[in-house]
Amino acid sequence: MSGDAHGIPERPRGDEAPRDGIGEEDNAIPLWFNFGFYGLIGVGLVYIVYYAFLSGWSQIGQYERESAEAEARYAEVRRANEPTENPYHGDAEAIAKGAETWNTICVACHLPDATGLVGPSLVDPYWKYGHADAELFKTVSAGRPLGMPPWGPQLGTEKIWQVLAYVETFPKRAEPGIGSPEYEAAAAAAQAAPAQEVPSAEAEKEIEAAAGEN
């Protein structure tokens, strides 16, 4: 090492004489190094072209495929764990709790007697999505198109079964109710029929006079 006026050490220059048998040489870069360096650059370019344009693989595609596989795999597990039978059939305590839920939430759309208003009648013979316990549970829990919201997250399994047990206690009716195809067809026909004119008082007198003459 040599130093300047400030005592800062400096490394020997390359053109200086070797010290302790060690010297700096300016040799050419070995061929294998250049081959490997530029070869890796070429491999990288080929990989980018293949990955981006030729392989059809992508992280998004792999995520979607794996998500679909997981959904299909766990759908069977969920179906196996879905409740299939109401444990509260005829249970007076559970029915009373179901009545509280019904009067708090359900009457706004189905009316206190379950004959239907915005929602369909629950006392007529027609059940669009089925009348079995599992089908009723799914209707309330997951909701249905055209108006029935999913109540599962808010009510939970136990309250849904309780309110369904309460619905079973309503007296059933034989005639079609709101929401059934027969009821809707009759309502549409009634709206399409022309309104009958109500005779005026003077017309009624004329009709009565004519009837008296006869």
Describe the structure.
By secondary structure, the protein is mainly alpha-helical. It is built from seven helices and two strands. It has helices at residues 31-54, 59-81, 92-110, 133-142, 152-167, 181-192, 201-213; strands spanning 2-3, 9-10. It has a two-stranded antiparallel ribbon. Strand 1 (2-3) and strand 2 form a beta hairpin. Helix 3 (92-110) packs across helix 5 and helix 4 runs antiparallel to helix 5. The longest helix has 24 residues, at 31-54. The radius of gyration is 42 Å and the shape is elongated.
Distance between the termini: 145 Å
Helix content range of the residues, please? 40-55%
Strand and helix order: EEHHHHHHH
Derived from helix and strand composition plus strand pairing, the structural class reads mainly alpha
Give start-end ranges of low-pLDDT stretches. Answer: none
- Output the radius of gyration: 42 Å
Please report which band the strand proportion falls in: under 5%, 5-15%, 15-25%, 25-35%, 35-45% or over 45%. under 5%
Q: If you average the pLDDT, what whole number results?
A: 83
> Main beta sheet, described?
2 strands, antiparallel
Major sheet: order of its strands? 1-2
**What is the number of helical segments per DSSP (H or I, 4+ residues)?**
7
Shape: elongated
Number of strands: 2
Distinctive features:
7 helices, 55% helix, 214 residues, mainly alpha, single chain, two-stranded antiparallel sheet
SSE blueprint and pairings:
Layout: E1 2-3, E2 9-10, H1 31-54, H2 59-81, H3 92-110, H4 133-142, H5 152-167, H6 181-192, H7 201-213
Antiparallel strand pairs: 1-2
Helix pairs in contact: 3-5, 4-5
